[in-house]
């Protein structure tokens, strides 16, 4: 962490030398939460953590194509400790320089950042590059660095990957990607994961679209995931969609940071799910989504989730209501921590006018079988905010709740949100 | 360690030089603007309401990026292919509100004044996770699989 903070100061110190004509932005959120915590089996606590999220973005540096991006948070507990790490905690989420080449969507990033090429999301300290290549439609990206260490330490010393894609205008994109994470442990060089992937986007006319990807881990010799989605738009207000997912857990969880905890008790099984949804979007009137999903684990039979969401925009209000049923009845094993099917209801309304905004949000579950003697849970949250300036807002959230784990829960939160995007360092017109 | 990192560093330097050359040579290709030219509202944008043609820089129709409920649910595909396009409007912190190695609060708490946003773990997820996690463990992994999980291991200790 100290090295990261030092790196940030180093980058910030370089700013004046880069600033031919730069925009400088600061954004963040200050949270002070208030909560009395009382979980079965744990000591009662009064929590009053204050957290500052802070981001700095500066663009137009050097020759106008260089930008700097920093983000992180720090927490201080003003009452009992809110985590096992002590009364303070912090994280450096990202901090990188990005240079955009004048042509071909070329860019280089250096520092700490998230890489999401082909869906293989990973946080690393390193370098990434990408560019379009001739002939038209061909693109290549590469990244390499050191994975940001995690608490369980199940990560390698280095990580590298790339993605090569070919696009046919308006019709097709096919990508091939790879990622390798390796390092040294007591047994010598080790490969944590070596994933090869293909991804696909295809559009046929204005109404049919296919998305998908498959990943194969050569370190475990098995497919980690197949994920495909097809949507069809028979009318401009109606979208029908279906998707399919198949995931062998043994390979999917091979490189997880969760592997040392008993999250997945039976990894020699395959998880699969398929779903369908219908969206009816009536502009300025309402949006309705009806969805169904079927889940299947080899060891646990099947379960289903289905329901609907309605969203109604009515200036200055935006309201929504939803209902879902999660049916886990076929998965029962008879143990204390068994599955329980449940109904879930949610409703909210958001009000915005001038400098004032407010919201009311309620979510409730009704369990078929009582959990710790209780067959329901709910949370009601109210929020009201005032914009002191367009870029600066103060808001307060209050929530009450009741659920199988906590009786009569009451929480409060004070929030300051700011986003000053165009502070000028030197010079303006670019 | 040194034997691993030295070739990697050399490869990186060569890669950077190669990319620089390619970008300079490929003069016919368009480049994204750094940001969206007009400020957008906080509600979900439907790109095709203003743009009817094709987004040249990615060779896809604008309609492919309309922020419909389906697009939001499946944004992983777009983020994996066209991350540069996302950064026109979204700062990276928009992603790290949910996707981060370490998050201090759950997204629906940090953004408690935005009930209209699609955010995971609303309400009492502590109770629900014992059901949802068993039904679909893969959905947990997508965010928690490569992240710090100090709050999880308070209960889920290694046996």
SSE inventory with pairings:
The complex is a heterodimer of chains A (430) and B (159).
Chain A lengths: L1 H17 L3 E16 L7 E3 L1 E13 L4 E12 L10 E13 L6 E9 L6 E12 L4 E10 L10 E11 L3 E14 L2 E17 L3 E10 L4 E14 L2 E11 H4 L17 E13 L3 E12 L3 E14 L2 E11 L14 E12 L2 E16 L2 E16 L2 E11 L6 E18 L4
Chain B lengths: L1 H24 L28 E2 L4 E2 L7 H5 L1 H7 L1 H4 L5 H5 L10 H4 L14 H11 L1 H8 L15
Antiparallel strand pairs in B: 1-2
Helix pairs in contact in B: 7-8
Describe the structure.
The complex is a heterodimer of chains A (430) and B (159). Chain A has 430 residues and is mostly beta strands. Chain A has a single domain, classed as Beta Barrel (Maltoporin, Chain A), CATH 2.40.170. Helices cover 5% and strands 67% of the residues of chain A. Chain A is built from two helices and 23 strands. Chain A has a 22-stranded antiparallel β-barrel. In chain A, a hairpin with a 6-residue loop joins strand 22 and strand 23. With 159 residues, chain B is mainly alpha-helical. Chain B folds into two domains: 64 residues, no CATH class; 58 residues, no CATH class. A two-stranded antiparallel ribbon of chain B has the order 1-2. In chain B, a hairpin with a 4-residue loop joins strand 1 and strand 2. The longest helix of chain B is centred in the first third of the chain and has 24 residues. The chains are: A mainly beta (430), B mainly alpha (159). Chains A and B meet through strand 1, strand 3, strand 4, strand 5 and strand 6 of A and helix 1, strand 2, helix 3, helix 5 and helix 7 of B.
Tally of discrete structural domains of chain B: 2
Oligomer state of the chains in this structure? heterodimer
| Fraction in beta strands of chain A | over 45%
H and E string of chain B: HEEHHHHHHH
Low-confidence stretches of chain B: none
- Profile the largest sheet of chain B: 2 strands, antiparallel
Cα Rg of chain A: 25 Å
> What would you call the shape of chain B?
globular
The sequence of SSEs of chain A as H and E is HEEEEEEEEEEEEEEHEEEEEEEEE
Number of domains of chain A: 1
Overall pLDDT level of chain A? 87
Helix segment tally of chain B:
8
The backbone outline of chain A, from C-alpha atoms, is globular
* Quantity of strands of chain A, as a count: 23
């Amino acid at each position: 962490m100290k090295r990261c903070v030092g790196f940030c100061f180093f980058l910030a110190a370089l700013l004046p030398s880069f600033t031919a004509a730069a925009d400088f932005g600061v954004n963040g959120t200050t949270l002070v939460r208030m909560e009395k915590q009382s979980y079965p089996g744990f000591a009662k606590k009064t929590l009053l953590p204050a957290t500052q999220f802070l981001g700095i973005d500066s663009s137009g540096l050097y020759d106008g194509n260089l930008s700097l991006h920093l983000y992180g948070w720090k927490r201080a507990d003003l009452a009992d400790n809110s985590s096992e790490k002590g009364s303070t905690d912090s994280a450096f989420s990202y901090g990188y320089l990005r240079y955009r080449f004048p042509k071909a969507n070329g860019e280089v990033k250096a520092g700490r950042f998230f890489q999401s090429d082909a869906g293989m999301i990973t946080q690393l300290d390193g370098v990434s590059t990408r560019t379009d290549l001739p002939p038209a439609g061909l693109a290549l990206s590469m990244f390499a660095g050191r994975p940001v260490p995690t608490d369980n330490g199940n990560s390698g010393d280095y990580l590298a990957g790339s993605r090569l894609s070919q696009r046919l205008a308006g019709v097709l994109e096919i990508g091939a990607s790879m990622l390798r994470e390796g390092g040294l442990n007591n047994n010598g060089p080790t490969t944590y994961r070596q994933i090869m992937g293909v991804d696909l986007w295809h559009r046929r006319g204005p109404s049919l679209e296919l998305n998908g990807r498959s990943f194969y881990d050569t370190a475990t010799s098995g497919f980690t995931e197949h994920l495909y989605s097809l949507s069809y738009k028979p009318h401009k207000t109606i979208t029908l969609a279906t998707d399919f997912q198949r995931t062998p857990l043994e390979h999917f969880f091979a490189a997880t940071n969760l592997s040392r905890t008993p999250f997945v008790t039976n990894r020699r099984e395959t998880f699969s799910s398929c779903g369908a949804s219908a969206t009816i979007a009536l502009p300025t009137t309402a949006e309705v989504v009806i969805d169904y999903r079927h889940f299947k684990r080899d060891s646990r039979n099947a379960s289903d989730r289905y329901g609907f969401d309605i969203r109604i925009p009515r200036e200055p209000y935006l309201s929504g209501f939803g209902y879902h049923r999660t049916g886990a009845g076929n998965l029962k094993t008879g143990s204390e921590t068994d599955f329980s099917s449940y109904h879930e209801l949610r409703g909210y309304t958001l009000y915005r006018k001038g400098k004032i905004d407010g919201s009311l949000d309620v979510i409730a579950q009704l369990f078929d079988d009582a959990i710790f003697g209780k067959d329901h849970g709910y949370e009601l949250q109210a929020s009201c905010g005032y914009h002191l300036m367009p870029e600066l807002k103060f808001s307060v959230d209050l929530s009450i709740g009741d659920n199988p784990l906590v009786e009569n829960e009451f929480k409060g939160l004070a929030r300051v949100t700011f986003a000053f995007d165009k502070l000028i360092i030197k010079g303006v017109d670019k | 360690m040194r034997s691993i990192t030295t070739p990697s560093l050399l490869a990186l330097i060569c890669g950077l030089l190669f990319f620089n050359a390619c970008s300079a040579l490929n003069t016919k290709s368009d480049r994204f603007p750094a940001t969206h030219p007009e400020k957008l509202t906080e509600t979900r944008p439907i790109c095709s309401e203003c743009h009817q043609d094709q987004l040249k820089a990615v060779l896809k129709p604008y309609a492919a990026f309309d922020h419909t409920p389906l697009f939001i649910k499946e944004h992983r595909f777009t983020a994996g292919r066209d991350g540069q396009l996302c950064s026109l409007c979204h700062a990276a912190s928009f992603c790290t509100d949910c996707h981060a190695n370490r998050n201090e609060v759950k997204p629906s708490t940090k953004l408690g004044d935005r009930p209209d946003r699609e955010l995971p773990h609303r309400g009492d997820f502590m109770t629900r996770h014992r059901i949802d996690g068993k039904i679909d463990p893969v959905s947990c992994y997508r965010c928690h699989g490569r992240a710090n999980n100090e709050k999880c291991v308070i209960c889920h200790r290694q046996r």
